[in-house]
Amino acid sequence: QIAGALSQENAAEAMSFIDKKAPLYHEIERRFHALTAVWDIASAIEIIDVKGDEVRMEFELEWLLERKSREPAGGLDRKKGAVKAVVEKVQTKKGKVWKVTSLSPVEFFE
What we know:
The chain has 110 residues and is of the alpha+beta class.
């Protein structure tokens, strides 16, 4: 869902899937907004490994991030890398929902 929101240049929607208590939440938010402000994004994820249970899941992902400049003479940049995501059931006003509680390395999203 995060990849889809980034592909639609919607940083706010991408952040809605991340727990506000997650480490580096504000850094992830800053990077997502910076990405979507100047680039057209195509993003795809391949799940390499999954571990967990009914309340906590750890995902090893291969993430492809393609950035195309919105400037007329701008270029295309492709980045592929390993990303780890931890997803947990967290309490919200709507009850317990799955949220990303960790996304690393945050530097991938430059």
